[in-house]
Amino acid sequence: MTREEVLAMESGPDMDDHVAEYVMGYLIDRFIFRHNGMEEPCRVWIDAGGKTHNPRKLSTDISAAWKVFDKFEMPELKKWFDPEYDEWYKCSIGNNHISERQAPLAICRCALLSVMEGKDAK
C-alpha cells in the first residue's frame, strides 16, 4: 500500500481492516455465513493469542480509535476551529501529520502511514 492509497482510503470497513492488520497486529479472517439459503460476507479479527474479536469501527468511532492512538509513543491529537469549515483534527505520530474533519479518520490514516514508514506500534 502506498501513501497515496492511504490518503485516498475512505473511513469504513476496508480502512478498519487495514488498521487492525497493520497497526494492531490482528489477522483478518473473511468467510461466507450461510443460513436458510442466504449468504452473508463476514469477517473476524484474530489477535496474536488466537482470540477472535468482532471488527470495530476504528476509522469512525472515537472510542475505538483511541485504542489505535494508544499503540504509539507520544502521539498527539489537536482540535482546532476554522470559521469557514468548522472543526478539524490533526494527528501527529513521528513525522506524520494528518488533518481531517473526523478525529478517528485522522488517527487511522496517521497510524497506517507511521507503520508503513517503520514507526512501529508498541
From TrEMBL:
Q: Under what name is this protein listed?
A: Phage ABA sandwich domain-containing protein
Stored InterPro entries: Bacillus_phage_prot-like, Phage_ABA_S
Species per Swiss-Prot/TrEMBL record: Paenibacillus alba
Would you say which domain of life the source belongs to? Bacteria
Span of domain Phage ABA sandwich: 18-112
Q: Name one Pfam family in it.
A: Phage_ABA_S
